[in-house]
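### Sample
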Amino acid sequence: MNKKDLVAIVAEEMGITKKESKTVVSAVIEAVGKGIAEEGRVAISGFGTFKTVDRAARKARNPRTGEEIDVPAKTVPRFKASKILTESINEG
């Protein structure tokens, strides 16, 4: 599923136009992204938690040349599904 599919489903479920739905979906995605960036964590009950994780600097190898390179430390987003979401996926 992609954003376009999600917009169509939200429009149908809520009885609104796809244009209105796109505005809603975009606002939610933007709010989650902003929350992760500013707060470091966004928890949505029954769905899961988005958070940031710090990755340490490390050494890696260029696959073409075999040269060792330094990969700098960085902060990356992570998602952990809630127990409810995980169970619903496994029930099929």
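The longest strand covers residues 48-55. This sample (Putative DNA binding protein) is used throughout the tutorial notebook.
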